[in-house]
């Protein structure tokens, strides 16, 4: 049996129509080709409904016979209830039964012949009535760790927690001060505040940014503030409620939205609600079973043994199914969500979304949309969000009415594995196509794409680790800048919301936490990188094709990744009116070799966006370009 004797490719519309996720109740046509040298008795399509594990079968019809191939086809209707559908093929021959399924369970595209039940392809069945806000699909994000961005005015040391270490110099490196058990006993602060962000709005606007995502800003003991002390109060070191409202107002005047980090899976042990340290004037759950907050937590041996996030005692876990907690968070007149909605806050990022129930996320989603349909709810999810399983339950993130977006860590991993040499361009292409296939287009164009964040090493430091040792320091520095430019251009030209982690544009380095949370180096920026990020931010603002245009991935060499973005017939990928344009991204990851590519493409002249004097002409509908080591380019088809 030769593998090509049977063929189905979920990426090709001739084998799966339509491509990708499917609206509930819609028809999907599937086809498989089989060599005519086999005596086929029946071809059976198997498809399984994920909600019920109910398996259905349908005999496929012979639809054509040519070029020594016999084609079989079947059309199935998607269920009315959004869910995943899994499918594979059974081929019954006169003398044996074979199966055809995915080659890898995590990668779509063409399949493989098996003599047993194979891995299945996925169809995401979603509710098309749910749309992600248009402004968000067009957005460019800037992520800020508030303590480390900028201090406006004089640092008020008396407003810092009493166990704090206040840095005397902004240029210091962050540090953890731990006891012999590894517990942090003093948190270090630099004093960045909300007024500082407001003062730097012109700078942020100059980067082409349209949404600022802030790591937590509510009162807490730590510098990262994921250990919330009071959800209704801005941390005094950061400022006041009025400071936040001023930031929201002045950002809006520049066309910039604000997004807050919602840490609703756990609180701090030093909080109004738990009050283990007795610092609050409240009856906390740790202090008494009569506390109004007692039912919010799960105790095993009261009061010292309780559920905590990853076993960290300072982060007691909340019971997300507790109705009193849900009312406090979402439904009460002075709930957390409603309180900050009154201040103009409409966008949230949910920390560790996997540890919240879909029901609670949906409650937050509905309250946000009730107040303002253009609100955005983003979830921290580290895997493929379409088929994510957490705590034994399939999550409904992208089926409609749960989340608008997730952090696209899968794409970040692909980009880094490509740079490390652990994955070639052909594999990256298939994996990106798989994400595109799994995600409904409303979500594929809404995911948060990033190279760095507060939870991972900064991109510049990672790239330094990947380079071979035989480059001189000067050569290495030049190559890393080229790589950063190439990867950031990839991000800004790709479907989704590109996110720039504060300081990356200034050349900030940093390994694992807390090194990845260094202060912004005002006055000491890498000017080349800073100007580059301003440039690509402007390109993204100017060209609709880079935001909501159609997308097609391709590769012609193991080291070269590329994709097209375009709008045509006066509309974008979502049928919104716009002008026609066509863009092309190319990137050679090889650190030593120039690579020439010959790309079959539309006839015409293609202009290099960075150096407009460089113009490439396609001859006989083939574009020939030589890419320098680590070079990326963005080309525009001239009219």
Automatic annotation (TrEMBL):
Report whether Aminoacyl-tRNA synthetase shows up as a keyword of the record: no
SMART domains for the chain: Aamy
The UniProt GO MF terms for this protein read:
hydrolase activity, hydrolyzing O-glycosyl compounds
Give any Pfam family that matches.
Answer: Alpha-amylase
Q: Which Gene Ontology BP annotations are present?
A: carbohydrate metabolic process
Keywords assigned: Glycosidase, Hydrolase
Q: Acyltransferase among the record's keywords?
A: no
Which CDD domains does this chain map to?
AmyAc_CMD, E_set_CDase_PDE_N
Extract the InterPro entries matched here: GH (IPR017853), GH13_cat_dom (IPR006047), Glyco_hydro_13_lg-like_dom (IPR004185), Glyco_hydro_b (IPR013780), Ig-like_fold (IPR013783), Ig_E-set (IPR014756), O16G_dom_2 (IPR045857)
The name on file for this protein is Glycoside hydrolase family 13 protein
């Amino acid at each position: 049996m030769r593998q090509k004797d049977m063929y189905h490719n979920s990426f090709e519309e001739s084998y799966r129509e339509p491509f990708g996720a499917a609206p509930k109740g819609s028809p999907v046509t599937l086809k498989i080709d089989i060599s005519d040298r086999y005596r086929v008795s029946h071809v059976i399509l198997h498809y399984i409904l994920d909600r019920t594990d109910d398996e259905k079968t349908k005999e496929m019809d012979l639809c054509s016979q040519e070029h020594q191939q016999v084609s079989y086809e079947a059309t199935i209707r998607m269920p009315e209830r959004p869910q995943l559908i899994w499918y594979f093929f059974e081929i019954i021959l006169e003398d044996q039964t074979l199966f055809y399924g995915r080659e890898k369970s995590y990668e779509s595209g063409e399949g493989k012949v098996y003599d047993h039940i194979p891995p299945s392809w996925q169809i995401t069945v979603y509710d098309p009535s749910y749309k992600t806000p248009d402004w968000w699909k067009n957005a460019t994000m800037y992520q800020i760790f508030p303590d480390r961005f900028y201090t406006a005015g004089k640092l008020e040391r008396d407003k810092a927690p009493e166990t704090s270490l206040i840095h005397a110099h902004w240029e210091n490196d962050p540090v953890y001060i731990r006891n012999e058990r590894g517990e942090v006993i003093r948190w270090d602060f630099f004093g960045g505040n909300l007024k500082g962000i407001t003062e730097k709005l012109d700078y942020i606007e100059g980067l082409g940014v349209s949404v600022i995502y802030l790591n937590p800003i509510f009162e807490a003991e730590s510098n990262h503030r994921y250990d919330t002390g009071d959800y209704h109060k801005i941390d005094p070191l950061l400022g006041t409620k009025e400071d936040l409202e001023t930031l929201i107002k002045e950002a809006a005047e520049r066309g910039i939205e604000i997004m807050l980090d919602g840490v609703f899976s756990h609180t701090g042990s030093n909080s109004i609600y738990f009050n283990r340290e007795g610092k609050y004037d409240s009856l906390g759950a740790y202090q008494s079973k009569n506390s109004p907050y007692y039912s919010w937590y799960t105790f095993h041996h009261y009061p010292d043994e309780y559920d905590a996030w990853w076993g960290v005692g300072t982060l007691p876990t909340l019971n997300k199914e507790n109705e009193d907690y849900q009312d406090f968070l979402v439904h009460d007149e002075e709930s957390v969500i409603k309180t900050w909605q009154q201040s103009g806050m409409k966008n949230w990022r949910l920390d560790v979304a996997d540890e919240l129930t879909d029901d609670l996320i949906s409650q937050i989603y509905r309250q946000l949309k009730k107040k303002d349909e253009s609100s955005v709810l983003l979830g921290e999810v580290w895997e493929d969000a379409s088929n994510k399983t957490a705590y034994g339950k399939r999550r409904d993130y992208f089926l409609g009415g749960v989340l608008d977006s997730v952090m696209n860590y899968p794409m970040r991993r692909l980009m880094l594995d490509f740079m490390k040499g652990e994955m070639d361009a052909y594999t990256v292409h298939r994996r990106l196509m798989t994400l595109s296939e799994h995600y409904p287009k409303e979500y594929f164009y809404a995911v948060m794409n990033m190279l760095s964040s507060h939870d991972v090493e900064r991109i510049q430091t990672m790239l330094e680790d990947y380079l071979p040792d035989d480059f001189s320091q000067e050569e290495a520095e030049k190559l890393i800048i080229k790589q950063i430019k190439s990867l950031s251009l990839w991000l800004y030209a790709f479907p989704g919301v590109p996110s720039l982690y504060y300081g990356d544009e200034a050349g900030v380095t940093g390994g694992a936490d807390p090194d990845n949370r260094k202060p912004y180096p005002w006055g000491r920026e890498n000017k080349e990188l800073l100007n580059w990020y301003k440039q690509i931010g402007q390109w993204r603002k100017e060209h609709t094709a880079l935001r909501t245009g159609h997308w097609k991935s391709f590769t012609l060499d193991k080291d070269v990744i590329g994709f097209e973005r375009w709008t045509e017939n006066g509309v974008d990928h979502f049928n919104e009116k716009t002008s026609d344009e066509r863009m092309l991204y190319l990137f050679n990851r090889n650190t030593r070799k120039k690579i020439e590519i010959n790309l079959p493409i539309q006839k015409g002249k293609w202009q290099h966006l960075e150096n407009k004097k460089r113009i490439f002409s396609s001859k006989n509908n083939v574009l020939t370009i030589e890419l320098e080591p680590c070079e990326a380019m963005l080309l525009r088809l001239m009219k």
